[in-house]
Design a protein that fits this description.
mainly alpha
């Protein structure tokens, strides 16, 4: 107690020296740790987001491209159906048919002339007829088809270029005649003298030898004798129905038998 019986003003209070004092530096340490952790977490989240965005970017670009293409196709389809708003659809115009190409009539006529010369050369040569008798026998199917095709092309032939339809028919007929001629020759090459009996085959071979002798002989007498014997043998074959010489081949033999050399 203070002198005079009064209490001291600071009586009952703890002395100031006993109160603990906290430094502000220790308070900053937890704050720095929390702030650093937050920054690290934000950086990790940003890195994860960057990886996810880079992985999903190609897919987003692809989806965007597909969407643009689909939209463009739908827009074009809408324009074709009736046009977009504010436009008038174009009137339908049928495509212009191509102009008919003129058939190669001159080339077909030249090919037919060549075929005619080849056929005439066969019919005028008794040697060829004897080696390939099926080619002059219309009862052979391939020969019959050729004769019909040749006659059709010959009926359509003209001296000057005809109308388009006629020219096309002539070109087609020449194509058929050429194919039929090749087929008939191939068949005759395979058949040759196989359809004849041994005696008939021997007679034909003997006639071929006589014609060869007459062609190659330098003696007029020998040549005329060989032609006369060949004509006699051929007459027998003709009467027997074995081989029929075309009239042109027979005319060649007749001229040779009268002493005229065949052309």
């Amino acid at each position: 107690m203070a002198p005079g019986g009064r209490r001291h003003p600071g009586w009952g209070k703890p002395p100031a020296a006993r109160r603990p004092r906290i430094s502000t530096a220790w308070l900053l340490v937890p704050a720095v740790i929390v702030l650093g952790g937050s920054v690290m977490a934000l950086m990790m989240i940003a890195a994860v987001l960057a990886v996810m965005i880079s992985a999903a970017l190609p897919m987003l670009v692809a989806f965007l491209a597909v969407g643009l293409i689909t939209h463009s196709r739908r827009r074009r389809a809408a324009l074709r159906r009736g046009g977009s708003a504010g436009t008038v659809p174009l009137a339908y115009r049928p495509p212009v048919p191509p102009r008919p190409v003129a058939p190669p009539w001159p080339q077909a006529r030249a090919r037919f002339d060549m075929l005619r010369r080849e056929y005439a050369a066969y019919e005028c040569d008794p040697m060829q007829v004897l080696r390939l008798p099926a080619l002059s026998d219309v009862t052979v199917p391939s020969t019959g088809r050729f004769v019909e095709a040749f006659a059709e092309a010959q009926a359509l032939e003209t001296d000057s270029p005809p109308a388009h339809t006629h020219a096309a028919a002539f070109v087609a007929a020449v194509d058929r005649a050429e194919r039929a001629w090749r087929a008939a020759r191939d068949a005759a090459e395979r058949i040759r003298l196989s359809g004849l009996s041994p005696a008939e085959r021997g007679t034909v071979e003997r006639v071929i030898k006589l014609l060869t002798t007459a062609r190659d002989s330098d003696s007029d007498a020998e040549r005329l004798t060989a032609y006369a014997m060949a004509r006699s043998e051929l007459a027998k074959l003709d009467r027997a129905g074995v081989i029929h010489l075309p009239r042109t081949a027979q005319a060649t033999l007749d001229a040779a038998g009268r002493g005229q050399l065949p052309a």
